Amino acid sequence: MTEPSMSALAPRLGAPALPVAEVGACAVHRDRNAAATCTRCGSFACEECLFVSTQGLETCRACAYGGLDEPVPLERRRSLGWWKATRATIRLAMLQPSRFFRTPPAERGFGVPLLFATGLYTFGQICQVAWVMLGMGALWWVAASASEAAIRSDQAALVSGLFVGYSLAAVLCTLVQAPVYGLLGAVLAGALTHGTLRLLGRARAPLERTLRAVCYANAPLVLGVVPLLGGLVGWFWMLGLEVIGVRETHRTSTGTALIAVMGYRLVFCLGVVGLYGVLVALAFAAKSAGP
Ligand SMILES: [Zn+2]
Ligand SMILES: [Zn+2]
User: Fold this and answer.
1) Counting beta carbons within 10 angstroms of the beta carbon of residue 202, is it exposed (0 to 12), middle (13 to 18) or buried (19 or more)?
2) What is the C-alpha to C-alpha distance for residues 60 and 36, in angstroms, rounded to an integer?
3) CB hemisphere CA count around 219 (13 angstroms)
4) CA of 131 to the centre of ligand 1 (A)
């Protein structure tokens, strides 16, 4: 008859050993035992008062105030499924960015956000290439059918065949290249943004949180599916989300976030322009010094 008492003890023994002082009553519900200590504010929270209950990431509802009502959909993909979680994440990041980026993470690391960023970048790029190819194809078709000199059907078939082949090759190349660029781009953007924040002394969250924000900011690249201006609009929208993401993640001002997001991009552009300037100056100098 010792077994029931053992099984009653089991959950306590299996739970992570909390110092006795940490096991107290919920800060809100004084009559309930705390399930965990909030990793942000350090207050005790019962099961109901916990927004995130992942071990090591426990966050109370008070600290999640102003964010989404539930963790980011992609971090709930086990219950939602990948497809639904991805769609909901894109929608919420684009339309409710402040709430989205204020939501505490329910997962460690940035593997899934990185996969999200890479996937969206690749999707956007393939859409853009496909639109350019379709546009060129349409132009060729219009030009061919409007031309006075009748194009022989065998010539038309040859050109069409070559064009379709070239288009497929372009899409295939994008399919191979875009994931690499997308992945490296997101990591580089996250690292440079975080580095800038560190230089400014405004980094209040670890690097992996900056990477998470920068990765989720890729959501608007889905607009690549819209012909003509979709890709461009998506790119500017992404910059806006990066600024909001950095601001909410590090609880900093919009100005500081703007410097962190645009600073290194500006330096890079000026560097390229400067390099061209130096090359042009050298060319002129060589010409005037010549015989
Ligand atoms: Zn808290
Ligand atoms: Zn409570």
Assistant:
1) middle
2) 9
3) 28
4) 48
Give the DSSP letter string of the chain. --HHHHHHHHHHHHS----GGG--B-SS-TTSB-SEE-TTT--EE-TTTEEE-STTT-EETTTTTTS-SSS-GGGGHHHH-HHHHHHHHHHHHHHSHHHHHHSPPSSSSSHHHHHHHHHHHHHHHHHHHHHHHHHHHHHHHHHHHH-SSPPPHHHHHHHHHHHHHHHHHHHHHHHHHHHHHHHHHHHHHHHHHHHHHHHHT---S-HHHHHHHHHHTTGGGGGGGSTTTHHHHHHHHHHHHHHHHHHHHHT--HHHHHHHHHHHHHHHHHHHHHHHHHHHHHHHHHHHH--
Q: How many angstroms separate the alpha carbon of residue 54 from the centre of ligand 2? A: 17
The closest ligand to the CA of 62 turns out to be 1
Distance between CA atoms of 16 and 205, rounded to whole angstroms? 25
- Write out the two tokens for 34: 């705390």
Distance between Cα 29 and ligand 2 center (Å): 4
Q: How far is the CA of 17 from the centre of ligand 2 (A)?
A: 21
Q: What is the pLDDT of residues 175-199, one digit of tens each?
A: 999 999 999 999 999 999 999 999 9
Model pLDDT, residue 158: 84
Percentage of the residues of the chain whose pLDDT score is greater than 90: 69
* Chain segment 117-131, per-residue pLDDT in tens: 999 999 999 999 999
Delimit the domains of the chain by residue range: 18-65, 109-289
* Residues ≥6 apart with Cβ < 8 Å to 186: 114, 117, 118, 121, 211, 214, 215, 218
Ligand nearest to the CA of 37: 1
Mean of all residue pLDDT scores within the chain: 88
